[in-house]
């Protein structure tokens, strides 16, 4: 089965990753105020935010979606620093999956 990247997938996936970059970037001050070491909070929060932006640019290729899925798992794992991120990471993972499915379904229907 070949994974074909469609413009709608790129658009919706990029939107999810862009919004996620903002949320995980804001994880940094919350983690610091919650008692997490500053270096760890900055590395995880800002690093994951930058990773989201970089992967949003890689959504032209199928491996970008694999990398985006890995980012969703990492976002859920940030819940070990800030417990609320378990919930927010799960929401973004659901949005990620929905973006891929909906875009493929809509573009499949319009191409008929």
UniProtKB/TrEMBL annotation:
<feature type="transmembrane region" description="Helical">
    <location>
        <begin position="12"/>
        <end position="32"/>
    </location>
</feature>
<feature type="transmembrane region" description="Helical">
    <location>
        <begin position="38"/>
        <end position="56"/>
    </location>
</feature>
<dbReference type="Pfam" id="PF14017">
    <property type="entry name" value="DUF4233"/>
</dbReference>
<keyword id="KW-0472">Membrane</keyword>
<protein>
    <submittedName>
        <fullName>DUF4233 domain-containing protein</fullName>
    </submittedName>
</protein>
<keyword id="KW-0812">Transmembrane</keyword>
<dbReference type="InterPro" id="IPR025327">
    <property type="entry name" value="DUF4233"/>
</dbReference>
<keyword id="KW-1133">Transmembrane helix</keyword>
<feature type="transmembrane region" description="Helical">
    <location>
        <begin position="87"/>
        <end position="106"/>
    </location>
</feature>
């Amino acid at each position: 089965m070949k994974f074909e990247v469609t413009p709608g997938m790129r658009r919706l996936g990029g939107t999810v990753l862009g919004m996620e970059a903002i949320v995980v970037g804001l994880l940094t001050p919350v983690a610091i105020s919650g008692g997490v070491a500053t270096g760890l909070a900055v590395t995880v929060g800002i690093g994951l935010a930058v990773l989201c932006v970089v992967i949003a640019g890689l959504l032209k290729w199928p491996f970008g979606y694999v990398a985006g899925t890995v980012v969703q798992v990492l976002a859920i794992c940030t819940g070990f620093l800030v417990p609320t991120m378990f919930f927010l990471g799960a929401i973004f993972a659901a949005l990620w999956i929905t973006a891929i499915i909906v875009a493929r379904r809509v573009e499949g229907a319009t191409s008929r």
